[in-house]
Specification:
The structure holds three protein chains of three kinds.
Chain A: H1 8-17, E1 26-32, H2 41-56, E2 61-66, H3 74-82, E3 88-92, H4 115-123, H5 125-136, E4 139-154, E5 168-171, H6 175-183, E6 187-190, H7 196-202, E7 207-210, H8 212-215, E8 226-242, H9 243-248, H10 251-285, E9 289-292, H11 295-316, H12 318-332
Parallel strand pairs in A: 1-2, 1-3, 5-6, 5-7, 8-9
Antiparallel strand pairs in A: 3-8, 4-7, 4-8
Helix pairs in contact in A: 2-10, 4-12, 6-11, 11-12
Chain B: H1 2-14, H2 19-33, H3 41-52, H4 59-72, H5 75-87, H6 93-106, H7 112-129, H8 134-145, H9 147-150, H10 155-164, H11 168-197, H12 201-214, H13 216-238, H14 244-262, H15 270-301, H16 304-316, H17 320-337, H18 341-357, H19 362-376, H20 384-393, H21 397-403, H22 405-420, H23 423-426
Helix pairs in contact in B: 1-2, 2-15, 3-15, 4-7, 4-14, 4-15, 5-7, 5-13, 6-7, 6-8, 6-11, 7-8, 7-20, 8-20, 8-21, 10-18, 10-19, 11-19, 11-22, 13-14, 15-20, 16-18, 17-19, 18-19, 19-22, 20-21
Chain C: H1 2-35, H2 44-65, H3 74-77, H4 81-116, H5 128-158
Classes of the chains: A alpha/beta, B mainly alpha, C mainly alpha.
The complex binds sodium ion (2 copies).
One sodium ion (NA) binds near residues 106, 148 and 154 of chain B.
Subcellular location (chain B): Cell inner membrane
Keywords (chain B): Cell inner membrane, Cell membrane, Membrane, Transmembrane, Transmembrane helix
Membrane topology (chain B): Multi-pass membrane protein
Chain lengths: ~325, ~425, ~160
């Protein structure tokens, strides 16, 4: 059944002959669980990574994209990256917490007032500290960009903190997220993402929380009426690489990868900014009603966030949390 | 390399190497041949575990368990008694009732295997008791089980919607008529089979007359709690109390309670035996399912789906009739050897642009692909529904697969109509 | 000896049955907690999934032992008896080698995950505990395939 150019047998030969011919010297797989075909900033940035690296390396580095969970979900592909089977994985920080516990700091809600502050924090000194944590787990941190916020959607309007009472909101399997929503009076319900659409449709859960670029392609607007601008957790997109593989590459190739990622970071951040507006507009167009949260709700959310922060401190130590807070204060200035 | 994998799989199957082992050998082959290949043996082992680390898959053992309880506790018998009271004396009345049950269960579960497990556990023992050949019953249920992914809700439709950006709600609606059409075409064959092969009229009429002698009120009273089972399960899902996966476990506990305390057909000490029986039925399936997923991932790493896409697009993209025909044939062939679920996830977004370019509606394309997937579940030698049905009747996979061929043909006729008459899928959406 | 015989006959069966019962009870508890007590458990889904992973790998040996492992016998059944028996022995030897190969490779696989200290999202269980199911599962599969190979050979010698 395989007639095309990318015949598997040929591909294997390519690798063997790589040294003699002008064939790529490195073939890097890049796996991700999000959709490559959706018109989202993440999808565009991912295509750009391939394009820029291949061009800058004069074809010496080939990047193969495996998105849409072709090689499995985030946890599975991160595991394969750590073990050295998959070269690169593109995911948010959330699934990486299982490998790098200190990343739990980003599960503290209400950290960043806007994405510019987040960007400053994640490009400054603090980022180097994080990169060191990634290295301890065997990952090279190549890209780290805050692209949007997790927002709440619900089938009923949430205007006051009372409206949240008893609302069954689907969360990830994450104890911090669960604590946050429960202490706001909601009923956090961890559920498998693959069942979420059906669960929202049938009312097993009333609400969920995800950024625009998940709400839109997964069509949650078909089953949710309200979009509540909670901005509760920044959605931080990353690309990581197997550290041993990165270290084993010649310096000029490392430079190609680093520079390409830097370029894509800028692109992803700017593209997200403009496209977040567009995505919001099209969610409205699809019939979602947007609710801006009141100061009172915001204050209650900050209170709940403080509780989560204490939990995180207990789990990963005060140092990293304090440093993060310091970096945020500095970035605000 | 992908072709070599298929050859190893086929050779293994022919040699009567267990299907899971044949699939496993094919899956580890590229990693052994090329030590630099990303899909190494360790990749395979890790993915065998993580492929099973999924919530919807839990519905399979749960539906088999509830089916076993319903059978041993005589709930399914009472449920079918109720149907038999009305249609038991008609030609193929009870096999058709089983297909209707599959349509109903299709509206509960989102997967083909869960539907096969649930309906098979209830219907097969009953049909066999009426004198129908058990291999025929298994073939019927395995084919009808495919309705689980066509009638909404459906996990493959969700997958298709997510990877292509097509409305999942619309896909669900588009699946309703094709599902009913397929159900009807299966009923037609069940009728032809009964006409041609005859039925054990003596057993059937004995059963029918004894039910009629009891009178409607008694039959209804006896079957009341059994009839309530699907009501509770469907109600549980549609009122949003449970997810489709959790519905399976609700049916387990509902049937245990009814059998222990209402019908008193089971006692606590039967439960261990039922558990062991269920373990016997589902244990042959699980590792196979996980390997089917890993097999798909290795093929993806070999870029086989890309090559396939290029092949279709380069040769057939211009002609709508040919494009759909070739797409169907390729999906059917792939379906013979593997679980097409992952292939849909990979192929659909790549084929969509060329399909829409020649005027094929994306929702229609989704329906076509999912119907193909449903057929693939029952085509021998590799069909997940066959694997579920086989232990239920303790018969060989190929035997059931062979017996299923006329059902598959009816299914394929329905697929042909669905493919070339887009309105069947789209009419409910144009209102 | 009696204990060994009992274990040989029922070890997998009982563990698998208990895991099945555990999955059912935990999932039911989750529904009750969410619907009746309006508070969801975060660990239930994970626990049932991991119990299922364990039962999946334990079930390989069980299906070999009980001869319920699925295969396509059509072609081999029509072969003459002598050849058929040879094929049977060959197949069981292939199975021994296959599962032994998986077993040997599952040890470093699990070790890597052990070193990585990866934890599960909800329960915080070290992930290597879930992956250890492969080592035990493949060991039992090797054992059961070897048993069936020996019994196939004995059968051939007897005739
Ligand atoms: Na369904
Ligand atoms: Na098939």
């Amino acid at each position: 059944a395989c007639g095309g150019k990318n015949n598997a047998g040929q591909q294997q030969q390519q690798q063997q002959q790589a040294q003699q011919n002008n064939q790529p010297k490195y073939t890097l797989q890049l796996a991700g669980a999000y959709s490559l075909n959706a018109d989202t900033p993440r999808a565009k940035a991912t295509k750009k990574i391939k394009e820029i690296i291949e061009q800058k390396s004069n074809g010496n580095i080939k990047v193969e994209l495996y998105l849409d969970s072709q090689l499995g979900g985030d946890r599975e592909t991160l595991e394969s990256c750590q073990a050295g089977n998959i070269a690169m994985v593109s995911s948010t920080t959330a699934p990486q917490v299982n490998f790098i516990p200190k990343l739990a700091i980003f599960d503290i809600p209400m950290l960043f007032d806007n994405l510019d502050i987040a960007k400053k924090v994640l490009t400054g000194e603090f980022r180097d500290k994080l990169a060191a944590e990634y290295e301890k787990a065997g990952f090279k941190l190549l890209l780290m960009v805050p692209i949007s916020y997790r927002e709440m959607t619900a089938k009923k309007a949430i205007n006051t903190i009372n409206d949240l009472k008893g609302v069954k909101i689907r969360t990830m399997e994450n104890k911090y997220h669960k604590e946050f929503w429960n202490s706001l009076g909601a009923n956090a319900t961890p559920l498998n993402f693959s069942e979420l659409y059906i669960a929202l449709q049938q009312g097993t859960v009333d609400a969920q929380e995800n950024p625009y670029d998940i709400i839109l392609p997964n069509k949650f607007y078909e089953v949710q009426k309200y979009l509540i601008h909670t901005h509760h957790i920044a959605f931080i997109h990353t690309v990581v690489m197997n550290k041993n593989l990165y270290d084993s590459m010649p310096d000029d190739y490392k430079k190609v990868i680093d520079e390409s990622m830097k370029e894509v970071s800028e692109y992803l951040f700017n593209e997200s900014k403009t496209q977040n507006e567009q995505m919001l507009a099209s969610l409205k167009e699809k019939g979602m009603q947007v609710i801006e949260i009141s100061q009172d709700v915001k204050d209650k959310m900050k209170e709940a966030a403080n509780k989560v922060a204490d939990m995180v401190r207990k789990d990963v130590g005060n140092d990293i949390v304090d440093e993060l807070m310091k970096a945020i204060e500095a970035a605000k200035k | 390399m992908a072709i070599q994998m298929f050859i190893i799989l086929l050779a293994g199957l022919l040699l009567s190497i267990p299907i899971a082992v044949s699939l496993g050998l094919a899956t580890i082959y590229p990693g052994i041949m090329n030590p630099h290949f990303a899909g190494s043996i360790q990749f395979v082992i890790r993915n065998m575990v993580s492929a099973l680390d999924s919530t919807p898959i839990l519905a399979i053992p749960m539906f088999i368990l509830s089916g076993d309880i319903m059978t041993k506790g005589k709930i399914s018998e009472k449920l079918f008694n109720f149907f038999a009271y009305f249609v038991g004396n008609k030609t193929a009345g009870m096999p058709i009732a089983a297909i209707i049950t599959a349509l109903f269960y299709g509206a509960i579960s989102g997967s083909g295997v869960a539907t096969t497990a649930a309906v098979g556990g209830m219907a097969i023992p009953f049909l066999v008791s009426l004198g129908y050949d058990k291999v025929y019953c298994a073939a019927l249920v395995a084919t009808a089980g495919g309705l689980g992914v066509i009638i909404p809700p459906s996990i493959p439709f969700v997958t298709y919607g997510v990877v292509t950006g097509v409305s999942i709600g619309s896909l669900f609606i588009a699946g309703i008529f094709p599902g009913i059409l397929i159900g009807l075409s299966l009923m037609v064959y069940a009728y032809i089979y009964a006409k041609r092969n005859g039925e054990d009229k003596e057993k059937i009429l004995y059963k029918f007359n004894s039910l009629r002698a009891k009178g409607f009120i008694t039959v209804f009273k006896e079957s009341f709690w059994a009839l309530l089972a699907p009501v509770i399960i469907l109600g549980g899902i549609y009122s949003g109390i449970v997810t489709p996966t959790e519905a399976a476990v609700i049916s387990v506990f509902y049937s245990i309670l009814v059998c222990l305390f209402v019908y008193k057909t089971l006692s606590a000490k039967n439960i261990m035996d039922i558990l062991i029986g269920t373990v016997k039925s589902y244990s042959p399936i699980v590792v196979l399912l996980s390997l089917a997923i890993v097999f798909g991932r290795i093929l993806a790493l070999l870029q086989a789906p890309v090559a396939l896409r290029d092949f279709i697009v380069m040769n057939f993209a211009g002609n709508r009739f040919l494009f759909l025909l070739v797409l169907n044939i390729i999906l059917l062939i792939l379906g013979m050897f593997m679980d097409v679920g992952p292939v849909i996830a990979i192929l659909a977004p790549m084929l969509l642009p060329s399909a829409t370019a020649i005027g094929i509606n994306p929702i229609h394309l989704g329906v076509i692909m999912v119907v193909n997937l449903a057929i693939g579940m029952v085509t021998p030698p590799f069909g997940v529904n066959l694997f579920v049905a086989s232990p239920l009747v303790k018969e060989e996979v190929m035997k059931i697969g062979t017996k299923a061929i006329p059902f598959i043909i009816s299914f394929a006729i329905a697929l042909f109509l669905i493919t070339y008459i887009p309105a069947i899928s789209l009419i409910l959406l144009h209102q | 000896m009696k204990v060994l015989k009992w274990l040989d006959d029922h070890f997998e069966e009982y563990i698998l049955s208990l895991l099945l019962a555990l999955i059912a009870c935990v999932m039911m508890l989750q529904v009750i907690m969410r619907y009746v007590f309006n508070s969801s458990l975060s660990w239930s889904e994970e626990l049932s999934r991991y119990a299922f992973v364990w039962s999946a790998f334990l079930s390989i040996g069980y299906t070999i032992k009980k001869k319920t492992i699925l295969r396509v016998d059509t072609l081999v059944e029509i072969l003459p008896k002598g050849i058929k028996n040879t094929v049977k022995i060959l197949v069981s030897l292939i199975m021994v080698v296959f599962f032994a190969y998986l077993l040997i490779n599952s040890i470093p696989t699990v070790n890597k995950i052990f070193i990585s200290k990866q934890e599960s999202p909800a329960l915080g269980i070290p992930m290597y505990l879930i992956y250890t199911s492969t080592i035990l599962g493949f060991s039992l599969a090797v054992l059961r395939s070897a048993q069936s190979a020996i019994s196939n050979i004995k059968e051939l010698v007897k005739k």
